[in-house]
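Could you show me just one protein sequence together with its fold in token form as a worked example?
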Amino acid sequence: ELPVDHKARRYIENRQLPNTHKLYYTNDFQGWVNQQLPNKFKKPFKEERVIIPFLNEDGTMYGFQGRSLDPNTKMRYITIMLDDDTLKVYGKDAVDRAKTVFVLEGPFDSMFVDNAIAICGSDLTTSAGMYRDMVMVYDNEPRAKEIIKKIENAINQGLKVVIWNRGNSIKDVNDMVLAGINVNKLLRERTFSGMKAKLELAKWKKI
């Protein structure tokens, strides 16, 4: 609904985010948050952010992320929970429990993946058991020791994981889409578990 030259709309369209997902905009993020949670920000100041809502299956909002439109900000994402006892999950309102659910780290990446959720700011394995069939999808960073350790832990827990192909040097799903890669096809091809996952991980780490 924003004008075609609006900063937030340009940002979303430049990232080619699907228009099937609910996104909102505010020019006063901290002021808007204080309307939801009084005095959350003690000294609020105005800043523009895209709002990414976390919705339950019934459509009620229990949290949200604010993505800054300022390229120089030190806090690109701010996550606010209206219910502190609920796991930070984006996409619960849209997934089909009867199908394979892909679990990613960020909401924007998850928007490009069929039947996906995002675990915002937590290890993906915290979602284990939420759905019947799940696949953990980490960023494509074979030299990042922290990510390798997380993948190893997921494999050891008996979970399915995506191990990226060695010829792909693009870090995240959104950038892969921008490069013309069919990410849904690639994710299905690169899903492994058990010993096969360990073998693929060993090859991936050598990049």
Notes: The mean pLDDT is 94. DSSP finds seven helices and ten strands in the chain. The first strand starts at residue 24 and ends at 26.
